[in-house]
Every structure is written in structure tokens, then in C-alpha cells.
Amino acid sequence: MTRYVIVGAGAIGATLGGRLAQADRDVVLVARGEHAAAMAERGLTLRDPAATVTVHPPVATAPEDVDLTVDDVVVLTVKTHQVLAAVTAWADRPVRDGGAVVGTAGELLPFVTAQNGVSSEELCLRYVDRVFAACLWMPVVLLEPGEVWVRSSPLSGVYQVGRVPAARTDPRDAAFLDRLVADCAAAAVEIQRPAEVLAWKYRKLLANLGNGVQALLGDGDPEVKRFVGLARDEALAVLAAADIEPVDPDEQRAGVGGKTDPKPIPGQPAGMGGSSWQSLARGTGSIETDYLNGEIVRLAHVHGVPAPVNTVLARLCRQAAARRDAPGSVTADQLDAALAHPRTA
């Protein structure tokens, strides 16, 4: 029986692992701090528009707590800026078959990279042979330890999953993906298998450029849409200069449209923002925007084209996270002023 080792069981990882546990699949949640302690002590509570459930999967806090076997799948659900530390901690862990060590996790096990952005796969390929990218459409919020708000129902999420690079093939891959599709279907997560998953991740990257804007201005600020439009228009020009073609919007709508639209949950808090908003709300001191808006900045530097909007957004988000500012610490006027003078913002 396949076991899913969910490394970084925050909002995304706890939802996926919790749904798999709810469907009686074998899973272990790897987390840390108060969130890990809460899940170990009283279980993981998932609240969605239709119901509230509590599950009790095993919880680990370090790689040394998990004895890996050839039946395991490692699912990295940390944020992109945490991937390098996670993959280096897990790639060299011994893997057993019938009690005997037969190799390392990086040599033998499939690793699923379930992050926003497009950098995780290249980071992991330094250490892992079988890397499978996952493009995530899963509106979930983690604000309190041991409790996740899953904002879509009946599906908790839709993932596009595929081998990276796509040209790599392995006799084990088809069977692994078949199991993943079946197990996740039982767990209210739809897995799609496109020919080129990174084209999907670039489309999602465009959607995620608004995460930092929402974090800076606050959830529900009416000016968010205007600034997001500026960031995306600039990003499309940069991607064109880099000769990168994301999945067509019509293909996105056909694959995902309406399936994961957020719905109200009884008793939900007033603020329910995205991943970057949640980083500021929890005061983590770090934020993933260097791999979202910052990815556009990287490509702009490589190809010699301007990207002042995304440069400023990435910088302001880094600074807000370092200061542990709450969401909404920047006004629209302040952001306009920063964009008008990007070199001094």
C-alpha cells in the first residue's frame, strides 16, 4: 500500500494529507512547532463549506522520525523558499525493502513538488531522480495550529501532475500516477495528467502574482485588482521575451474553471487571504514572493527587459515579512508612490 509522506504539512499539505487519511489511505504528516503539536495531540480539523471533520494521521517532526520504504511517496508541500532545506533533509534518507536498506529516497522514491512558482523542480533535480511537479488549485487557509479552512467543496482541490522533465520516462511512472489519481480521487482531490505540467505552472504563476499585492494591501482592498493587472501585464511581456508560453487561458478554464471556487464556510474568520497573506498574518518572518514576482524579475534580468512592477512588489513583500507586518500594512497610495519611483521604494 502506498504511503504518502507529506513534508511541510501546512495549509496545502495538511489538507491533502488529511483528506487522504479521511479516505483511509496511509499517510504521515511532517510538520513542526505548535501546528505539529496540535495535530499530534488532538488531530487535524478540516472545515469546509459542507462539513467539519477531525482526522488523526501520524505526525512526525523530522526525517529521522520516519522509516522510509519502497512503497513511500514524498510530497513536498513546503513553500518554494523552503524547498532546498526540505529536499536536502530527505533525499539521502535510507529506504528499506523487507527490512534491508536498498538505496536512498532521492534514488528510489517519487518526489512530488507541490508549490507555487516554477523553481522547486530544478532545486529538487540536484538531489532526486524522479521528480513530479504539481500545479495546485486549492484555496485553503491555515491560521490556527491544527485547523485548516478548505474553501471549496465537494472538491478540495485540482492538481495537474507530471514528470519533470516531461521527456524523462520510467517504467514505474505510469503505475505511480495511476495510484495517485485513484487515491486522490477518493480524497476529494482531482489529479489531471497534462503532457507538459510546467506550462500549467507558468499559468498558475501569473495567477499567483497577486498574492503579494493582497498581502500588502489586505484582503478585500478594492485596489488589489488594478495592481495585479499591472504585474500580470508586465509578466506576460517578460515571458514573451523569454519565449515561455503558459497554458492557454481557455485550457485553464476547461481544466479547472469553477471546480475550486471559494465558498463560504460556517463560522469562517473575516480575513481569508492567499498564501502570502497567510505568511504575514501568522508573522512567519518569510514569504514566497521571491519565487513568484521574483521569478518574473529573474527572467527580466536574464533577458534584458524591464520589470519594475514585480521588482517593487517582491521587495516590499520581503521587507514586510522581515518586519513581521500584518496584512494590509501598505496603502494603495503608498504602493502607487513606490511604483512611480521604483529605484527608491
UniProtKB/TrEMBL annotation:
GO terms for cellular component: cytoplasm. One of its GO terms (molecular function) is 2-dehydropantoate 2-reductase activity. The keyword NADP applies. The keyword NADP applies. Pfam families: ApbA (PF02558), ApbA_C (PF08546). It comes from the Bacteria. Keywords: NADP, Oxidoreductase. Residues 248-280 are annotated as: Disordered. Coiled coil: none annotated. InterPro entries: 6-PGluconate_DH-like_C_sf (IPR008927), 6PGD_dom2 (IPR013328), FAD/NAD-bd_sf (IPR036188), Ketopantoate_reductase (IPR050838), KPA_reductase (IPR013752), KPR_N (IPR013332). Residues 199-319 form the Ketopantoate reductase C-terminal domain. Residues 5-152 form the Ketopantoate reductase N-terminal domain. Belongs to the ketopantoate reductase family. This is NAD(P)-binding domain-containing protein.
